[in-house]
Amino acid sequence: MSVDVAQAPPSLLVCERSSFVEQNNRVGSHVEQLHFNYKVSLLLPECSSAPSHLDSVLKGFSSFYLIRKLPIYELLNKDFLETAVYHGSVYGLSYKTRVDEDTCVALMPNGRLCLSLDKYSFQLLGFEGTRSRFRPKDRHIVSVDLTNNSMAPGGRGYLRLLTGLMSRLPLSMDFLLSHHPGGGASLQPLLSRYDWSEHRPEMINQVLPHLSCPSDPKSCDAQSFLEWLGAVDADIGSENSSSSFLSSFVCPELKTVLSRALRVSICGLLLPPDVHRLIQEVRRYLEQTRLETWASLTVHGFADSPVSWRDNEHGHLRGGENFYTLLMFQDHAYHLYLATGAHDTCPP
Amino acid sequence: MNVDEKDGSGVYQRVVLKNSSPYHYLKVCLVLEDELTRLSAVELKHFIITGLKNLYGEVGAALSFDLLKYDEDTLTALLRVYSRGLVKLWSSLTLLGSYQNQACAFRVLQVSPFLLALTGNSRELHLD
């Protein structure tokens, strides 16, 4: 059997174009449905410092908590369910676990608990699940809605899962947790029982002088624009020629040089409501600024989350990418690019 | 390519592109037996071309790839290669085992059809 070495792994890029003034625009739902965000990167051309209203939103991303060696059955604790899961949105994700080799757990804001297990662990747990879509031979997904009546504390399904996680498969792992809108107060009873630490998302500001940029991002093709944006984020110079030995990467044609641009990046467990607030403030900034300009916002999901958009299964394979870039213009138009790798379904 | 327009005015447009990326990007790190050995960017690229030539001959040595970024202290590099050349480049990196008579290995840290994905790798989140 011969192998085609010229074939690259599959990937998906969804490009949406619409306007914020359109009632049917789907930016809000896309933002909301990517639950576990690791990094937000904002680029503001011709800007050297963010205005105060934008700065306060950038600095106001919610804190998150890291709990050491949390037994997963604690997520089924009756008090935790009543104080946190049933009231508001809990974002929980296992930390430093790899979805292609380890057991990974995610607690989604809609109250769904998702466990990505290897075959042996799945058999030990003894709870209903499905084969992984991407690795059906050696991986299983257990996904339960904790707000469903069948999973109410004391119910049959609840007790079966609780027993499985307490005795047959006593999983415990470092866990990232956050709550909206309650914050730490709603999680305090759980935190108090374990070793935990509070973390603020880490923010880095940088002014980039004399930045080569596509002169008309609206008409620039998606792949070239995303590549250029990636080069800006990775501090890759584009002053090459086609005959350079090291690199022939150049800024897409019809380029212009910006006198400066502000790049802000925030890392941590970032909540979709905070990202949504940031988008609103960037739009406000674009409305107020006199220069003809645009802004781009890229949000990276966690590479090892067992889900990406909505409840869709997510795997790592080569890169684990699941991110979107929102390009916003002054006339309320937007371009939205949603990208996933080989072990992912098409974004909604 | 699927194009889905909600109405005739083209107010809402959604296009799904499958395997459309012309390039793939790799983040690689060179691990050398003698940790004090340093390579310049030109030396690193030449070393990788040597690996391609050893495995795929003159045709392999002609494979076009770019060294987008290189950190001499950590020996970490970002490479760009045409998607159809990814497997050739990756396999030759894997089989490169010796640099100037000392054992070495390339660790492929991340591979993606999107350069942006290499700037937001959650596996680099350290909270300790």
TrEMBL record, chain A:
> What InterPro entries has UniProt attached to this entry?
RNase_P_Rpp40
Superkingdom to which the source organism belongs:
Eukaryota
Name a biological process GO annotation: endonucleolytic cleavage in ITS1 to separate SSU-rRNA from 5.8S rRNA and LSU-rRNA from tricistronic rRNA transcript (SSU-rRNA, 5.8S rRNA, LSU-rRNA)
Q: Which GO terms describe its cellular component?
A: multimeric ribonuclease P complex; ribonuclease MRP complex
Q: Name one GO molecular function term.
A: ribonuclease P activity
- Annotated protein name in UniProt: Uncharacterized protein
UniProtKB/TrEMBL annotation, chain B:
List the record's Gene Ontology CC terms alphabetically: multimeric ribonuclease P complex; nucleolus
This protein's superkingdom? Eukaryota
Q: Which GO terms describe its molecular function?
A: ribonuclease P RNA binding
**One Pfam family hit:** RNase_P_Rpp14
GO annotation, biological process: tRNA 5'-leader removal
Q: Which residues cross the membrane?
A: none
PANTHER family, sorted: RIBONUCLEASE P PROTEIN SUBUNIT P14
- Stated name of the protein: Ribonuclease P protein subunit p14
- Recorded source organism is Solea senegalensis
